[in-house]
UniProtKB/TrEMBL annotation, chain B:
Source organism of the structure: Arthrobacter terricola
Primary residence: membrane
Official protein name in the record: ABC transporter ATP-binding protein
Subcellular location(s) of the protein: Cell membrane
GO CC terms: plasma membrane
Every ABC transporter domain range: 3-239, 255-499
Topological category with respect to the lipid bilayer: Peripheral membrane protein
Keywords per UniProt: ATP-binding, Cell membrane, Membrane, Nucleotide-binding, Repeat, Translocase, Transport
Length: 502, 516, 450
């Protein structure tokens, strides 16, 4: 084993590898992180899921009874569509791969992802067509199968590292999925009931709902960081958004006015961030932290004085009701999860797509990313760096503000002190976890929403893990993520550095 | 297009960077702006390019006064600029970089990169550039990156092209190619403003030369003027272009490098099997174009490169695997190539910077406690000795001029007995006075009997200081040649041509008489 | 660019500072103001001595506090129905409205400095002792945050480090039974160790994997909090016979002695805070370790090139910062609370950030900022009790102060004190030749090294 196969990318150049003469050309740097990390997790998984598997089975509710006629039709149509799309994409993938023989390079990045999504939709639609309403899994056998797969994948990763090859991304994806399945079966099977069961559809739908403010928050972060401004103030933007939505919706008796007010409020927080950090060049992280304290104090103060004095006149916003998308919401499983949302929920989908397309496929996005990577270069081609930064930060604030309205217009029908509860920070983590990419941030936020929801579901059915540890999970995951277990990525090069002309 | 500058003045506070500068650039002309570092050339061009507002004076395009609020206005008026430090975004493709700020779009602001690709290809064909529009810029060699910069200007229909120190990062051969491109552009009727302090190129390419000194135009010169004339016009006094130094008296070879390999994060061998010795009382200059492994070589000696194999010995002791502190304690003096980032802590005082690598040694510290009085008196003494111009030893070092900053670094590194002295780009960005000072100090250290390793991309500097010259190309040693080797041979070697072949080729070109 | 040394616009001290701090945009800026890092920066505060005082850092600090108090006052006035009422007859009896407006601040002063309505001397002096008591953990945690700032690390994790310090200290305090003083010393050491572990973990992750400390510390705060809540439900930590998540009381021997007798809460922890401040001052300004920390904070590349072991410094400084924050936890469990509960850290860890920022990350600056915010806290309690003004206003005022102090040009602009407008051109920035700089910069050096 060559000594040059060390941990690459460790921020610490601890020293040289003394005295060894590597064969020139033979040494490639492959990180051991993936191999070691997966091995540890696989061992943990084996102990928990296989050796500590309970005697009980785990039940997963799939679909609640619904409008059956429409539902069956929708299921069939989805099944056929998903079949066609996944077959088409799979063919495309295969052709592109075998066409030139040079492997992944010629396969556009979206093909594998879309294929996997289509296949998942296909499976779910098939379950809907078959009218399966509950899956019951024996925790012992499933645990063992999962453990074997995990160990095999970890072994493969170690083997690849040994052979100086990097572990492909699908290994991580499959590993995570299998681990998740094993974990769910294990933890549900340890429930207090004789035949413990949870509603899978409810679990996922709840996760999406809980993820809404996180997604908006992380999109705000993406917009700011991509343009070179670190936005720690997401928490404050969410909180002031929630506050303003509640007050304005109550005063105007119009929830939509509340929604607009939330966006304005978020932008207002951003305005301070932008002016102080861009014009007065104050350290962006400092401004963000201080703004969070300021907004927390301000909203708490106003809540204690004005809102508690007159709750009916100031803190009784209406409710943004869930809206079903015709037909789509009838699709079993997928429908209730994706197409039974409040207006804010649909805005979330739109925001993710718009921000993604905007950043990576438009003139505006090209300029934004240029400013965040190399502001001088952007300046020399006639882009006004600080103006671009200013407007982006404002826009980010408005988006986070809308996310804040979720708390008072959708989730709870009144404002209360510090009700964002640190979700702004989780959104920040989601943005890093998602590698500064709107889609990635969206998926990371979903993961955090899932962990959050799982915790409350598990607490209800009873679990071997204390609820505090379940609550810790998203935070611990984030620490692992930033410590590089999930793979490294680089933030926009100029993020956090103020631009001084000349 | 005719471009005129009338009475351009740019003040920064009390400092006058440009003082009533008049300049006329005729169409189809290569106009050289000659001046040493800090003379105000770049400031002037930044004014012309709309990056700075002039404090006074006006710019005329084809006889009409114009006001540039930003680079966008300047580009719209047909002015393009290739900056000394390329203004390219490393993680963008060539097409994206070229499109930036001048994007072709489809409906709803969506990018139309195909359009940009077409334009790039058209220009590439016209000028014989070999540029792939979909290549990531960070993967391209510097020479190609420079062409991307030129394409950027041409795509915007630039009629006047400003090239700011364009040859600083090129091999002599690449420089020749660039000069050919400039001639071609000139033939197409474009005007070129060529900023340089390198007399040879200036003489070779220019139609008109304007000399700038301390922010003022001190006159114009004819390309046929002798280098000495140009140099003294540039510096304002007569300068001897060569350093007076005694021939080296090499002693024992105490510094030895064997089979050194440095692997970077991507698994590339950035230094690939180097072996060489340096004797006491000898200057070995490492020549080569920027980015051919010089930085990694010096960093490997210092001990900040993580993946190094081979052997580096000083006085028979292996340095590889030692911490930076141990290497410095072994008597290595190190002047890093980027003094602002690696050499100095900008916000620290001069006295603190003077002990940046000695802070825990006697007499500046005893145990864990430091001795401020000792540190201050040391700083006072060194400021005196190295003629550092500063109001106080407590001033933040970042507020000093480049030359004075470099003197602080030198003072620190030369303030302890050395067994090896390494200086990377020791005079980058300095004015002639400071360059002379630094060179004298380097030679003085050599004459003390210290082995000296100088890394420089400036061939002039290499030729001036070296007793022997090692040429690096793509991390490999092309050869080690004696001090008197001709520029042509060195230039070819810097492009990777082996020594004997380079000599033959150089001879041939001379016999053919085609070389300018 | 060759003439990168040319100064920028005449109005832009801040731009020069940022350029200095980031090596012209090559590095991320440090959390510490450039003027606090070591060298003096000749902001050409030319003109008269008076002008220099008026436009200097100290003046900006005073004005920032003033401005924040005024804004806080306005906020309280507009939300107070009594003010609106009295405003109705403002011209008849202006005193009524003004007294309504000033009431909260009067209560604040009465609750934090001197209660002139007190029955006896003890009652009159009680507020100031309360201020010192409340300040103690703020100073400890503030020093922890400031120390990490000096090494370029945004330690948002004081909250978690306080929890760990309190956790370790409290456990030793109620399970071990040792003689007086020895027990206290052991408790303090346990607190130091607890905080150092939690802080050092951040340093280790940063140094080994490059994980950004802002994210890591925020996450570790949550983890520490949940861990505390979990432990308080376990037999090892939960008070016997209680269903609440609280620990047993610490032994009497494990508590800080009261300094002024039992009627005051002020305890010896405050003296330790003074000692800690002296220690941090010495560490930063007179020790080789502190030199390393500061160098790493101001320019990591240069520090590495100069032979400083950057990873070691990062781990060490985070451990020390954690240890200091751990002392804040000890000040809680051994000083004021006397037992461990889920709210042991209150919001000290977050207040500590504003304390360190207000103190410009210098030890004595942090000490006095801690006293000021302690006074706000102590007075805020009295204010809430007497005038029903929610204590949250304190958060608003604190954060406004920090915001203003971080942006001196903003404050100067608000008060019309721009030093550049009237000054004679002195070329205080290092000029091209390096000889043009004036002695103007010397004035600020005293404040910078304080």
């Amino acid at each position: 084993m060559s000594t040059t196969t060390t941990q690459s990318g460790s921020g610490a150049p601890a020293g040289n590898s003394p005295g060894h003469t590597g064969k020139p050309g033979a040494s490639r740097l492959v990180s051991w992180k993936a191999g070691i990390g997966l091995s540890l997790l696989a061992i943990l998984g084996t102990i928990l899921f296989a050796f500590m598997a309970g005697p009980k089975s785990a039940g997963f509710g799939i679909a609640e009874a619904s409008n059956t006629g429409a539902s069956t039709l929708a299921a069939w149509i989805t099944l056929i569509l998903a079949l066609v799309i996944s077959a088409g994409l799979g063919y495309l993938w295969f052709v592109r791969r075998s066409g030139t023989g040079s492997g992944y390079a010629t396969v556009p990045r979206w093909i594998p992802a879309c294929t996997v999504a289509a296949v998942i939709a296909l499976c779910l639609a098939a379950l809907g067509v078959a009218k399966v309403s509950k899956i019951t899994l024996e925790s012992g056998p499933v645990g063992w199968i999962c453990a074997v797969v995990l160990l095999a994948l970890a072994g493969y990763s170690v083997f690849l590292t040994q052979a100086k090859k990097t572990t492909p991304r699908w290994v991580g994806g499959v590993f995570a999925t299998v681990f998740l399945v094993g974990f769910l079966v294990w933890i549900v099977a340890h429930g207090n009931d004789a035949e413990p069961a949870i509603s899978l559809a409810g679990l996922i739908a709840g996760s999406v709902t809980l993820a809404v403010p996180l997604v908006f928050g992380s999109l705000s972060g993406v917009l700011c960081e991509r343009v070179g401004v670190v936005n720690i103030a997401i928490e404050g933007q969410l909180l002031l958004g929630a506050f303003s939505a509640a007050v304005v919706a109550t005063v105007t008796h119009n929830v939509y006015a509340g929604l607009v007010a939330a966006a304005v409020a978020g932008a207002l927080v951003s305005l301070v961030l932008a002016v102080v950090s861009i014009k007065y060049l104050v350290n962006q992280i400092i401004v963000g932290v201080v703004l969070n304290v300021l907004i927390s104090g301000l909203t708490s103060f106003l809540f204690s004085t004005l809102l508690t004095a007159d709750p009916d006149g100031l803190n009784k916003p209406g409710h943004l009701p869930p809206v079903d998308v015709p037909f789509l919401s009838d699709i079993p499983i997928i429908g209730p999860i994706l197409f039974h949302q409040s207006l804010v929920g649909y805005l979330m989908y739109i925001a993710v797509i718009v921000v993604y397309l905007g950043l990576f496929h438009t003139k505006w996005g090209l300029r934004v990313r240029a400013v965040g990577e190399h502001p001088q270069a952007a300046d020399t081609v006639g882009i006004n760096v600080n103006r671009t930064r200013f407007w982006n930060v404002l826009m980010g604030g408005a988006i986070a503000g809308i996310g804040g309205s979720f708390f008072t217009l959708v989730s709870v029908d009144a404002f209360s002190k510090d009700m964002s509860g640190g979700r702004g920070y989780i959104a920040l983590a989601a943005l890093i976890f998602g590698r500064w990419n709107p889609i990635g941030a969206f998926l990371a936020a979903l993961l955090f929403g899932f962990a959050d929801n799982l915790q409350s579901v598990i607490t209800i059915i009873g679990s071997p893990v204390p609820s505090q540890f379940m609550a810790m999970l998203p935070y611990a995951l984030t620490v692992f993520a930033v410590a590089g277990l999930v793979g490294r990525s680089r933030p926009p090069a100029a993020s956090g550095i103020p631009y001084v002309k000349g | 297009m005719k471009l005129e500058l009338k009475g351009i003045t740019k003040r920064f506070g009390s400092l006058v960077a440009n003082d009533h500068i008049d300049l006329v650039v005729e169409p189809g002309q290569v106009h050289c702006l000659l001046g040493e570092n800090g003379a105000g050339k770049s400031t002037l061009m930044n004014v012309l390019y709309g990056l700075y507002d002039p404090s006074d004076g006006e710019i005329l395009v084809n006889g009409k006064p114009v006001v540039f609020k930003g680079p966008g206005d300047a580009m719209a008026a047909g002015i393009g600029m290739v900056h000394q430090h390329f203004m390219l975004i490393a993680v963008f493709t060539v097409a994206e970089n070229v499109a930036l700020g001048n994007e072709a779009t489809k409906a709803a602001g969506f990018l139309n990169l195909d359009e940009t690709r077409r334009k790039i290809q058209a220009i590439s064909e016209q000028y014989g550039f070999d540029v792939d529009p979909d290549a990531m810029v960070e993967d391209l060699p510097v020479g190609v990156q420079q062409r991307v910069e030129i394409i950027k200007a041409l795509v915007r229909d630039a009629e006047v092209l400003i090239l700011d120190e364009p040859t600083a990062v090129l091999t002599p051969q690449e420089t020749d190619e660039l000069l050919a491109i400039i001639r071609q552009l000139k033939a197409d009727g474009k005007s070129i403003v060529f900023i340089s302090h390198k007399l040879r190129e200036v003489k070779e390419i220019s139609d008109t030369i304007t000399v700038i000194r301390r922010g003022k135009v001190v006159g114009s010169a004819d390309p046929s003027a002798s280098p000495t004339e140009l140099a003294s016009a540039m510096v304002g006094r007569s300068v001897s272009l060569t350093l007076e130094k005694k021939p080296a008296e090499p002693g024992d070879a105490t510094f030895k490098v064997r089979d050194l390999v440095v692997v970077d994060q991507n698994g590339q061998h950035v230094v690939d099997g180097l072996s060489f010795d340096i004797s006491q009382g000898e200057v070995l200059a490492i020549a080569g174009v920027q980015g051919n492994g010089q930085t990694e070589l010096t960093e490997a000696v210092l001990g900040v490169q993580p993946h190094v194999t081979g052997s580096i010995t000083l006085d028979g002791v292996e340095l590889l695997g030692k911490s930076v502190k141990q290497v410095l304690s072994a008597g290595v003096g190190f002047v890093p190539e980027d003094r602002k980032v690696d050499g100095l802590v900008g916000t620290f005082s001069i006295s603190e910077n003077m002990v940046l690598d000695l802070y825990d040694k006697a007499p500046f510290a005893k145990g864990i406690g430091m001795k401020p009085a000792q540190i201050a008196s040391h700083a006072e003494q060194k400021v005196e000795e190295f003629d550092v111009r500063t109001p106080s030893i407590n001033a933040a070092v970042g507020t000093l001029s480049g030359g004075n900053q470099q003197k602080v670094v030198l003072a620190r590194e030369l303030s302890r007995p050395l067994r090896l002295f390494i200086a990377s780009q020791p005079t980058r960005g300095l004015d002639v006075g400071s360059i002379e000072f630094v060179h004298k100090r380097v030679i003085a250290e050599r004459d003390n009997g210290t082995p000296v390793m100088i890394v420089s991309t400036e061939l002039d500097e290499v030729l001036e200081l070296a007793d022997r010259i090692a040429v690096l190309y793509r991390g490999k040693l092309v050869g080690i040649v004696p001090a008197g080797t001709s520029r042509d041979v060195l230039g070819l070697m810097m492009a990777g041509v082996p020594e004997h072949e380079a000599e033959l080729t150089a001879q041939k070109t001379h016999e053919g008489g085609t070389h300018a | 660019m060759p003439d990168a040394k040319t100064p920028r616009d005449e109005d832009d001290d801040v731009a020069t500072d940022v350029a200095l701090d980031t090596a012209d945009g090559a590095m991320a800026p440090s959390p510490v103001p450039a003027s606090s890092q070591g060298g003096t920066i000749p902001h050409a505060a030319g003109g008269s001595l008076f002008r220099q005082i008026v436009t200097g850092n100290a003046m900006v600090s005073v004005l920032s506090v003033l401005l924040a108090i005024v804004l806080g006052g306005i906020l309280m006035a507009v939300t107070n129905p009594r003010v609106a009422e009295t405003a109705g007859y403002f011209f008849a009896r202006p005193g009524d409205m003004l007294s309504e407006v000033f009431k909260p601040y009067v209560a604040l002063v009465q609750g934090s400095l001197f209660n002139w309505a007190g029955a006896d001397t003890a009652a009159q002096l009680y507020p100031i002792t309360e201020t010192l008591t409340v300040s103690t953990p703020l100073i400890f945690a503030g020093l922890g945050v400031a120390l990490a700032f000096r090494a370029g690390l945004f330690n948002i994790g004081a909250q978690g480090q306080i929890i760990f310090g309190a956790l370790f200290g409290a456990y030793v305090g109620f399970t071990w039974h040792l003689p007086f003083l020895l027990h206290l010393v052991v408790v303090i050491i346990a607190g130091l160790v607890g905080g150092a572990l939690w802080g050092g973990l951040v340093g280790l992750l940063k140094a080994r994997t490059g994980a950004h400390e802002v994210i890591v510390t925020i996450m570790l705060n949550y983890i520490a909090n949940f861990l505390l809540l979990f432990l308080l439900t376990t037999p090892a930590f939960q008070r016997k016979g209680s269903t609440n998540p609280i620990s047993p009381f610490l032994d009497q021997t494990a508590l800080f002695p009261e300094l002024l007798g039992p009627q005051f809460r002020l305890h010896a922890g405050f003296l330790v805070a003074v000692l800690a401040t002296v220690f941090v001052w010495w560490l930063l300004n007179r020790s080789t370790l502190g030199f390393e920390f500061r160098a790493v904070g101001a320019n990591q590349s240069a520090a590495r090139t100069a032979g400083i072991n950057v990873p070691r410094a990062v781990v060490l400084v985070m451990a020390l910062a954690g240890a200091l924050a751990g002392l804040a936890g000890i000040a809680q469990v051994s000083g004021t609370e006397k037992y461990l509960s889920g709210g042991v850290a209150a919001s000290i860890g977050f207040d500590a950030i504003t304390v360190a920022l207000l103190g410009r990350s210098t030890p004595w600056g942090t000490f006095f900022a801690g006293l000021l915010f302690g006074a706000f806290r102590a007075g805020g309690v009295a204010m809430q009790a007497q005038t029903q003004t929610p204590i949250d206003i304190v958060l608003v005022i604190q954060s406004l102060i920090v915001l203003f102090i971080a942006a001196p040009p903003l404050v100067r602009a608000i008060f019309g004190l721009n030093p550049r407008k009237k000054k004679n051109a002195t070329g205080g920035h290092g000029s091209g030749t390096g000889s043009g700089a004036t002695a103007g910069g010397k004035i600020e050096s005293g404040a910078a090294t304080a």
